[in-house]
Automatic annotation (TrEMBL):
It comes from Dyella koreensis. Residues 35-119 form the DUF4440 domain. Signal peptide: none annotated. It comes from the Bacteria. This is DUF4440 domain-containing protein. InterPro entries: DUF4440, NTF2-like_dom_sf. Pfam families: DUF4440 (PF14534).
Amino acid sequence: MEPTLTTEPRLLDILEELRRREPIFHRPEFGTTRADFDRMMDANFREIGASGRCYSRDYVLDVLEERYRGEIVEHFDAHDFHCLEIAPDHYLLTYTLQQEARLTRRATLWRRSADGWKILYHQGTVVADALT
């Protein structure tokens, strides 16, 4: 039932660069402060969470700032990465994320800029029957 996704060979280096950055905002090597997250995000960033709620850039920055005030212990497995170039320097990265009992499909729209990678959009969708 699920499609077989493949990444074009010419995009494999980009796939690897972006794979190392996912899940977004959960990779301390790319930063843990509001200023770090601000630099990662495009000015028009928005997110649709696994709940279906829409989140603004400012709201996400507020949540991240609060989250990183305490100790972070996370257990996740990200796999099945796929990269698609949708326009020059714009890439859609999709993958599956297992976090304890919750399985989600993730999609992040990335733009490569002179300042590095910028996140334009992110969405998570819960896989309803994944563990039944």
